[in-house]
Each structure stands twice: as C-alpha cells, then as structure tokens.
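thread: overnight batch results

M.L. [08:02]
morning all. the overnight job finished for the chain we discussed friday. pasting input first so we're all looking at the same thing
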Amino acid sequence: MKAGIIGGGAAGLAAAYELGLRGHHAEVFEGAPFLGGQASTFPVNGVPLERGYHHLFRSDAAMIDL
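M.L. [08:03]
and the structure it wrote out:
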C-alpha cells in the first residue's frame, strides 16, 4: 500500500513510521521547511523559542484578559 501523509508534525511522522513498520510506503507532505510541527522551535533574538509554547508574553493581551 502507498499512503500520503499530510503534515510532518508528531502525528504525521508517527503515522508514517507505523506504516513503514508494517511494510507500507508512506510519503510525508509538509508545507513548512522543517518537520516537527508545533514541537519545533524558532529563533527570537538568537534564542530558540518553542513554537507550541506554554507561556505568556506581556503582549498576549487576549490571554491576559481572560
């Protein structure tokens, strides 16, 4: 079987891995230039910041207003 996996985040990569273990061909299609989805980082002033962050900034007014 051939499978196309949309998204190179944790779920997409896990699906491709499991299909491969079962002898199937899986191709992952990711729009970003990196894999990992929300489990990746991006640089802010030279410091890696989590993309799926679990913290607040002073500028996160909508969250602070909650």
